[in-house]
Amino acid sequence: MWNITLNLLSGFGVTCLIFILTLVFALPLGLLIAFGGMSSFKPLSYLIKTIVWVVRGTPLMLQVMVVFYAPAFLLGWSGLQCTAATVVAFVINYACYFSEIYRGGIQSITKGQYEAGQVLGMTKSQIFSKVVLLQVIKRIIAPMSNEIITLVKDTSLARVIATEEILFVAFNRYVSKGIIWPLFYSGAFYLLFVGILTIIFNKLEKKLSYFKA
Amino acid sequence: MAYLELKNIKKSFGKTEVLKGIDFSLNKGEVLTIIGSSGSGKTTLLRCINFLESPNDGSLVLDGETLFDMQNPIKMTDKEIREKRLNFGLVFQSFNLFPQYSVFKNLTLAPTLLLKEQLKKLKKTEKNKEKLKEWFNSEREIIRKNCLKLLEKVGLEEKSYAYPCELSGGQCQRVAIARALALNPKILCFDEPTSALDPELTGEVLKVIKSLKNKDTTMIIVTHEMDFAKKVSDKIIFMSNGVIAEEGAPKDIFENPKTNELKNFLSNLSNKDGE
């Protein structure tokens, strides 16, 4: 029992690592993609829209496989180690989803807020950071929390390239040898993790409930 | 020469010509109201003056300085546009307060940002950091005191730490007026300041605007409140289909309308009960 817990914990460590690294890179990258997609420079916005279409239009599992195998097969490179390949694929995939959430949030802010900033002599970046940003954050908390909770569970797709995340450990070490209960045990890890995230998001939502936007 | 002079302002959106050559001038300390039916171009004119739209033709001279002249257009940087814009304040129909900030912060935000920019510039030349900090703190204190005074002026000093969602529409608009005044604009513009308000709340806003009238405050007000226009204006412009159909003192406009458009406009107003 103790042994199984330790093994699952080490798998859970990989799960958390994928989760955190994906967030750290995909959150800012998503904002960049959102700005690119809204750019008035048409070639850029079409390029971005095409990329978002491809990434959202194909399975994440397929993208993980492509990032892992394609460099070796097509270019003869040694390729990425499996956790790194997983993170790269996840960052690209989630950045595209986040970008759409950002875009929705940014475009939902009325023109009047920008104009009020303008007539008060603010620069474009001041208007974004001081006026618009917090209102956007407030509006996207709900869709963002949805997406981030999905990310927790999507990490299990990494097992397709033998990344040793928690579900991989539970299945390959135990279920394949006829021990079924670690499968439920690993489910509890996900539940606990998502539970904590839910509490954090609720707190954040409450913290921003002092104003209406 | 007049304080503010607009010449031949034209503005089209696509094929629709909204302003077909507007000329007017205004002296310092005067209150100008612009009336006219919806779609006559009143708001567009105000937005051109505030650099929210760029006109297709025409020029604007304020206090001897040409702010724009589309006959000899110069490419303006964002910074120049910002500086020129600060000559004007604009109060919107829908207030556009910043919801995440307290009333007080709504007022202090823009002046403080400008002060910080100034500080950044000074840091390049001034070596004495202590002195600079002292200067910054005292300037910031001045901004705070000024903003408190403005809140007092619009009768909302008790609401300093309230958030916009806790205020009535009339109170929001009074905050918006104070916010525009906090930057000390040469000309304060109002775009239908009471049109989004319940009838019982328009009075408090109009009272505040009236209280601002003195020899130093120059105002341009777009409004549908005719009684208010009659009382507060030094000069009234009646716009119709993108041109100034008639202009003059309140008395001339209301008691002695010359054009048919204005006659119709005024008689429609007095018949608005549907009688």
Total count of domains of chain A: 1
| Radius of gyration from the alpha-carbon trace of chain B, in angstroms | 20 Å
Distance between the amino and carboxyl termini of chain A = 51 Å
Secondary structure tally: strands of chain A: 0
Structural shape of chain A: flat
* CATH domain topology of chain A: MetI-like fold
Offer a quick outline of the entry.
By secondary structure, chain A is an all-alpha fold.
Features:
A: 213 residues, mainly alpha, 8 helices, 80% helix, B: 275 residues, alpha/beta, Rossmann fold, 2 domains, 4-stranded antiparallel sheet
Walkthrough of the structure:
The complex is a heterodimer of chains A (213) and B (275). Chain A is an all-alpha fold and 213 residues long. Chain A has one domain (2-207): MetI-like fold, CATH 1.10.3720.10. Chain A has helices spanning 2-38, 42-57, 60-75, 82-107, 111-119, 124-154, 166-174, 181-207. The mean pLDDT of chain A is 94. With 275 residues, chain B is α/β, with parallel strands linked by helices. Helices cover 42% and strands 23% of the residues of chain B. Chain B is built from nine helices and ten strands. In chain B, the strands form two sheets. In chain B, strands 6-7-8-3-9-10 form a six-stranded mixed sheet, sandwiched between helices. In chain B, helix 6 (199-212) links the parallel strand 7 and strand 8 (218-222). The longest helix of chain B has 25 residues, at 129-153. At the A-B interface, helix 5 and helix 6 of A face helix 2, strand 6 and helix 3 of B.
